[in-house]
Design brief:
The complex is a heterodimer of chains A (112) and B (112).
Chain A: E1 4-5, E2 10-14, E3 19-25, E4 32-38, E5 45-51, E6 56-59, E7 62-67, E8 72-77, E9 86-93, E10 101-102, E11 106-111
Parallel strand pairs in A: 2-11
Antiparallel strand pairs in A: 1-3, 3-8, 4-5, 4-9, 6-7, 7-8, 9-10, 9-11
Chain B: E1 5-7, E2 10-13, E3 19-24, E4 31-38, E5 42-50, E6 53-56, E7 65-71, E8 74-79, E9 88-95, E10 102-103, E11 107-111
Parallel strand pairs in B: 2-11
Antiparallel strand pairs in B: 1-3, 3-8, 4-5, 4-9, 5-6, 7-8, 9-10, 9-11
The chains are: A mainly beta (112), B mainly beta (112).
């Protein structure tokens, strides 16, 4: 059973517009969430995180929103750039472990 | 820092052969993880270690898979015997408290 779900396998966005990537989770014990970005033939790299005591965290063009009641998080990229084209993974864990559970990923394509 | 180092980058083997994947974590990191990436399941956690001790191996698919961490700077993931359905990209990652997961560039395994 997939505890972290990314229901959109792919997304295309025009350069300069907003990209919104979504992630749902089922385990109510999860209290720390992360987004990773992956280019072909490379390992995933950390992008941004959020703890459950917050509902928003911002880092430059990247903002993560957390809705605990809906067990949903989203990553907003504004403005989107062609270099943002990659696969994005969301991940979650609970504070009692280091067991990071990842989703299936969403492939973002930013069109120039 | 050199980052997490994995070898080999690519491995092609025949069904039934033994395969050994290797990982050197970032110096000072006390947690080490093995993940497998497939289209269907995304990044799937196989096993993770803390201070060289396996903490959770519930993701190891079957007895054909084994992982060891003989010291703080080296880990192996072994598949014996290998099967075509084991074909995937295998990632090693490491971390320590207060740090996100850092991934290596992966080993692409093809079993024919």
């Amino acid at each position: 059973d997939q505890q972290v779900k990314q229901n959109s396998p792919s997304l295309s966005v025009q350069e300069g517009r907003i990209s919104i990537l979504n992630c749902d989770y089922t385990n109510s014990m999860f209290d720390y969430f992360l987004w990773y970005k992956k280019y072909p033939a490379e390992g995933p790299t950390f992008l941004i995180s959020i703890s459950s005591i917050k509902d928003k965290n911002e880092d430059g063009r990247f903002t993560v929103f957390l809705n605990k009641s809906a067990k949903h998080l989203s990553l907003h990229i504004v403005p989107s750039q062609p270099g943002d084209s990659a696969v994005y993974f969301c991940a979650a864990k609970d504070s009692g472990t280091y067991k990071y559970i990842f989703g299936t990923g969403t492939r973002l394509k930013v069109l120039a | 820092d050199a980052g997490v180092i994995q070898s080999p980058r690519h491995e092609v083997t025949e069904m039934g052969q033994e395969v050994t994947l290797r990982c050197k974590p970032i110096s000072g990191h006390d947690y080490l993880f093995w993940y497998r990436q497939t289209m269907m399941r995304g990044l799937e956690l196989l096993i993770y270690f803390n201070n060289n001790v396996p903490i959770d191996d519930s993701g190891m698919p079957e007895d054909r898979f084994s992982a060891k961490m003989p010291n703080a700077s080296f880990s192996t993931l072994k598949i014996q015997p290998s099967e075509p359905r084991d074909s995937a990209v295998y990632f090693c990652a490491s971390t320590t408290q207060g740090s996100p997961l850092h991934f290596g560039n992966g080993t692409r395994l093809t079993v024919t």
